[in-house]
Amino acid sequence: MTLILPLMSASGESRGPPHSYIRVIDGDTLEDRQADITYRLVNIDTPETGSRASCIAEREQGEAATQAVRDLIANAQSFEARPTGRTDHYGRTIAYINVDGRDLGETLMEEHLARPWRGRRYPWCDAYGQLLP
Which residue from 68, 118, 122, 131 puts its CA 20 to 30 A from 9's CA? Predict the structure, then answer.
């Protein structure tokens, strides 16, 4: 199932530009406030932010990923969610996300702000507080 969200709401009203209804929670989690759906990107993992980060380098990289997504959404003309039919243990809808026709996960990996999702979370920090490749 593909949802092309910026065009019309379920009631037939224009949804407006993505920045008016998409809230960026972090680099791999977005909330559609109009549809009341929280999405988790299926194909990537981004570093944690705040107290969930294991080291300062992870926190900084996570903040950079979050800001990059915010910038993309702020300037976007279109937002497309393609749910996989799964949810995670937080109740988030697992989905591929396209922003202006480009896969958001691929974009973040190209910018070295994310890595491919490998079925589980792997550490971002080594024993010295440096980012792992």
Answer: 68
Whether the per-residue pLDDT at 8 is higher than 50: the answer is no
Q: How many residues does the chain have?
A: 133
The Cα–Cα gap between 79 and 66 comes to 17
If phi over 0 gives left and psi between -120 and 50 gives alpha, with beta otherwise, what is residue 12?
A: left
Is position 52 annotated as part of the catalytic site? Answer: no
- Say what the pTM is: 0.87
Distances (CA, A) of 43 to 6, 57, 68, 98, 115: 22, 22, 17, 12, 9
Catalytic residue among 13, 23, 48, 118: 48
92 noted as active-site residue: yes
Residues 6+ positions from 119 with CB-CB distance below 8 Å: none
- What per-residue confidence (pLDDT) applies to 15? 75
Per-residue tokens: 92: 């988030």
CB neighbourhood size of 106 (10 A): 15
> Are 131 and 57 spatial neighbours (Cβ–Cβ below 8 Å)?
yes
